[in-house]
């Protein structure tokens, strides 16, 4: 693989990593603060993509679709929290897993009923069309760089919100000891609702940003959900900083592993077996990395104190 292609794959890995962070940040806060396992978090990423694609088709503007999709994703997240999830906070984890898995099945079928099974396409905004020259003869799409920049900016704003505001202090305290926060007079149910709604909006934002470069179809959130759980386990449950660094790491491993391994294995075996073995091993690299990290740091890279 040439240096140019390696650079492109590295940028693709970072871009995928920031999308994973947008999904995993809300998930790690919900799990860390509320001790609530929400398997339906990936569905909120899917709903964000569908809302963005539909609103872009209706308005003819990517930016207006993005502006409208964020409050819509927030409202859908709060609606799910009010209808379903708040009744599960005091239940055991098995009940939470079963109930939220049921929500996945219901919403996937609802999406098929409303939008159909055919994939939707969302056009890249005209302002971000084209590419930028990385080196002579090699261009990289401007929109993918915009996704990377938006993810990094969101991560910085989220860090400021969590680390430098009163609400962030309550979230961090809730992640460390929710019972003590409630005993001090904080309305823990309202805190849970805010955290859940904010996480849903972040996932919806990731879905809208991913829609122009990925296929928008039912079930698109399932694979992202699995990797988001890997991210929060590696980074440390409840840690936004850990989720950010782990998401970039997972994105790079996932992208570079799948692209580089077949070429590396061709050095020691024939092309066809190398391609098959590279694809199989590449899909396992993230989980191998997770196992190795947890063997050294069982609570993740940046565990929340408590």
Short description:
This protein is mostly helical and 306 residues long.
Write the layout of secondary structure elements.
Elements: H1 3-34, H2 41-59, H3 62-83, H4 93-115, E1 131-135, E2 138-141, H5 142-164, H6 166-183, H7 188-210, H8 220-235, H9 240-265, H10 271-296
Antiparallel strand pairs: 1-2
Pfam families: BPD_transp_2
Family: Belongs to the binding-protein-dependent transport system permease family. LivHM subfamily.
Main location: membrane
Q: What would your notes on this structure say?
A:
The protein is an all-alpha fold and 306 residues long. It has a single domain (12-296), classed as ABC transporter involved in vitamin B12 uptake, BtuC (Orthogonal Bundle). Helices cover 75% and strands 3% of the residues. It is built from ten helices and two strands, in the order H-H-H-H-E-E-H-H-H-H-H-H. Strands 1-2 form a two-stranded antiparallel sheet. A hairpin with a 2-residue loop joins strand 1 (131-135) and strand 2 (138-141). It starts with a helix and ends in a 10-residue tail after the last helix. The mean pLDDT is 88.
């Amino acid at each position: 693989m040439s240096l140019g292609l390696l650079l492109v794959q590295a940028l693709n890995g970072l871009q995928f990593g920031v999308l994973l962070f947008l999904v995993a940040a809300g998930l790690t806060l919900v799990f860390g603060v509320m001790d609530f396992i929400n398997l339906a978090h990936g569905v909120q990423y899917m709903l964000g993509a569908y809302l963005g694609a539909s609103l872009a088709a209706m308005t003819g503007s990517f930016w207006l679709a993005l502006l409208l999709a964020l409050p819509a994703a927030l409202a859908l997240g709060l609606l799910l929290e009010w209808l379903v999830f708040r009744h599960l906070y005091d239940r055991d984890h098995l009940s939470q897993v079963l109930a939220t898995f049921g929500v996945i099945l219901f919403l996937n079928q609802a999406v098929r009923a409303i939008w159909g099974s055919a994939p939707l396409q969302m056009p890249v905004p005209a302002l971000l069309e084209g590419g930028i020259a990385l080196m002579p003869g090699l261009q990289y799409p401007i929109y993918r760089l915009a996704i990377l920049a938006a993810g990094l900016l969101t991560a910085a704003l989220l860090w400021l919100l969590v680390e430098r505001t009163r609400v962030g202090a309550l979230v961090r305290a809730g992640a460390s000891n929710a019972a003590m926060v409630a005993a001090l007079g904080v309305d823990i149910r309202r805190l849970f609702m805010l955290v859940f709604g904010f996480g849903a909006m972040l996932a919806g934002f990731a879905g809208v940003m991913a829609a122009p470069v990925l296929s928008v179809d039912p079930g698109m959130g399932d694979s992202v959900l699995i990797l988001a759980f890997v991210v929060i386990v590696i980074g440390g449950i409840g840690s936004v900083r850990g989720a950010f660094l782990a998401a970039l790491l997972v994105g790079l491993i996932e992208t570079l592993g799948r692209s580089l391994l077949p070429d590396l294995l061709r050095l020691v075996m024939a092309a066809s077996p190398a391609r098959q073995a590279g694809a199989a091993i590449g899909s396992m690299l993230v989980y191998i990395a997770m196992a190795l990290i947890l063997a050294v740091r069982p609570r993740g890279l940046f565990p929340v104190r408590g």
